[in-house]
Amino acid sequence: MNRIEIVPSILSADAGRLAEQVQEAERAGADRIQVDVMDGHFVPNLTFGPLVVEAVRRVTKLPIEAHLMVFRPELFIEAFVKSGATLIEVQVEATTSLYRLVMRINELGAKAGVAINPATSVETLREILPYITTVNVMTVEPGFGGQKFIPHSPEKIRRLRAISPDVEIEVDGGIDASTAPVVVKAGATVLVAGSAVFGHKQGIAAGIAAIRKAVA
User: When comparing pLDDT for 143 and 54, which is higher?
Assistant: First the structure.
């Protein structure tokens, strides 16, 4: 089995200690860092912009993924690539020109990924799969951290894995030491964790270690 990657989401980090916590996650073995970008329209929350990606880029050598939960993501991808994001994920529900958007991300030199909401079928991705590296299967409704894992998600991951044996399947939402083995068994290869890492009672390193042990 390929190594399972763990990606802490800074949505759950302490904003006042962001640099310190990102560096702690890197020392603890995180594989990359996720920056959740929300516009207050596509999802009912407002979070980070390119300047935050730039700040994270200055303090870590890890790859940075920007998950754009925004309407009209085509307006923002260039700024996020320039700020240091190495993977740009766009919501398939947020654009009417997904192919053009993915091609533009690739032209800018970043990896392209797509994210799908819980109610979006994986079958809608067949035509775009050859042009992307990653599918982020949202296992909660996007917009807020700390939500409970949606129980039918593993079956959805299995269907996607059957469609594409090679695509990187990322899961995002409610991932911790108890849910991580379930999604990995279904075919996930990348685990995004926010509160299970940055909110762990014993610290960031313990949070990452718990998830790593659960999927070993």
Answer: 54
Type of residue at 73: P
Predicted pLDDT at 145: 66
The confidence score (pLDDT) of residue 146 equals 67
Identify the bridge partners of residue 172 per DSSP, sorted by sequence position: 138, 192
Q: How far apart are the first and last CA of the chain?
A: 10
Torsion of CA 23, 175, 173, 115, to 10 degrees: 80
Selected catalytic residue, list 31, 166, 172, 176? 172
Instruction: Please indicate whether residue 36 is annotated as part of the active site.
Output: yes
Closest alpha carbon to 7 in 70, 75, 78, 56: 56
List the catalytic residue out of 14, 36, 166, 176. 36
- Write the CATH number of the domain with boundaries 5-214: 3.20.20.70
Beta bridge partner(s), residue 78: none
172 carries an active-site annotation: yes
Q: pLDDT tens digits for 136-175? A: 999 998 876 667 899 999 999 999 999 999 999 999 999 9
